[in-house]
Amino acid sequence: VKIFAPSIEQRDVVNHLKGSPTEEKRNVLVESARLARGNIQDLAELKASEFDAVIFPGGFGVAKNLCSWAVDGKNCTVNEHVRSTLQAFHSAKKPIGLCCISPVLAAKVFPGCEVTVGQDKNVDGRFPDAETASAIAELGCKHICKNVNESHVDKANKIVTTCAFMCKAPLHEIFDGIGTMVQEVLKLA
């Protein structure tokens, strides 16, 4: 297992204690290195031929830094290294795992694919971003409704997705869903 991130400036830096942006500037690779304890490489160096699969974690950073979904929604652009990485694994028929908001990356890069970000309706207030499913459909992809502890496998494209924090759920349910995504990716590898 190796961890990669693009060497780009973050769109903004958030003080998570206060929940508001700061004036500080950070690099995505440097910040990711802090989280990965330094064991990380620039995404530009990733070679799909050296790996059996790729998994993209989610989080709002994906929607702000790996693409512009946070600002532009379905009209977003995808970072060039993220796009080329996804395309390289897809072309090599190697599995791609995506969780939380990151399934929108596949929706932008692979028209016609199937993904899940949970439900397409805000069921019991648990899916406050349910409109993301509609935007995915507007991109020509199929959104599959799944519970937080489940994942969806698009066998034709070898794309496995789960909603994770797109659902307001207890951590153990989110953990279970991410676990099923990882297990399905490994089965396809």
From TrEMBL:
Signal peptide location: none
UniProt-listed SUPFAM superfamilies: Class I glutamine amidotransferase-like
Protein name according to UniProt: GAL3A protein
Organism name: Aptenodytes forsteri
InterPro entries from the UniProt entry: Class_I_gatase-like
Highest taxon in the source lineage: Eukaryota
